[in-house]
Design brief:
This protein is an all-alpha fold and 223 residues long. It contains 14 helices and no strands. α10 runs parallel beside α12. The longest helix is centred in the first third of the chain and has 14 residues.
Length: 223
């Protein structure tokens, strides 16, 4: 998305306002039902205004796929993060779209870890049916990303997807940081597989009490 606003006509009356004023206008547009103003501000030169305008359009139910897909490529990570958060929170609108799924999955390779984490969360919210590309991206993320928060989000998403072939990745996460191990033990509940039960029994000896407790509770469902 390029800054400066859509269209080539006369500048809107608020064009010479500061960014803070335009951002407030964007927020208010979402509460006042001013769809046209929110759409215009979505192309603003300032990223905080663009992010606020996306939120306003989401509130108004006016975020179509083309707007979100464009925002996924915004030069500012805050705008990309806001866009993927809005997409992830609207499961019924976007989860069945192959183009949207591919767009979110591409953000698993974003240069900004906060965008990556949000993309993993969104795919987990959408659940099964995200496709092989998204699943493969989450597996790569869970295994190899430098950020523990990104790996944690990926493991949680893989548990929500419950895709076949990902059990080994989740079992591997049982050797990661404590927060990731907590996510992994819960993710194992998605798999009806002897390997998953073996992993849960392994967690009974974990040094973290929350990991042990979750494993005990899940194994109680199998005994």
């Amino acid at each position: 998305m390029s800054g400066g606003g859509p269209g080539s006509g006369a500048d809107p009356p608020w064009a010479d306002e500061g960014a803070d004023g335009r951002r407030r206008r964007a927020v208010l547009a979402g509460h006042r039902g001013e769809r046209r103003e929110a759409a215009a501000l979505a192309g603003d030169a300032d990223p905080s205004v663009r992010a606020a305008a996306l939120g306003a359009l989401g509130r108004l139910g006016a975020l179509d796929e083309s707007i979100l897909l464009g925002a996924f490529g915004d030069p500012d990570p805050g705008v990309r993060r806001r866009a993927v958060a809005l997409a992830g929170g609207a499961v019924d609108l976007y989860s069945a779209s192959a183009e949207m799924t591919a767009g979110v999955a591409a953000l698993l390779d974003d240069a900004d870890p906060s965008v990556v984490e949000m993309a993993a969360w969104a795919l987990g919210e959408w659940g099964p049916g995200c496709g092989e590309g998204a699943t493969a991206g989450l597996c790569r993320l869970a295994v190899g990303h430098d950020s523990p928060l990104c790996r944690e989000a990926a493991v949680a998403a893989l548990g929500a997807l419950g895709a076949s072939g990902t059990l080994a990745v989740i079992l591997g996460a049982l050797d990661d940081t404590v927060n990731i191990r907590r996510r992994a033990v819960v993710a194992l509940a998605a798999f009806d597989d002897p390997g998953a039960e073996e992993g849960l029994r392994r967690c009974l000896g974990d040094r973290d009490w929350q990991v042990r407790q979750a494993a005990q509770e899940l194994l109680g469902d199998h005994d």
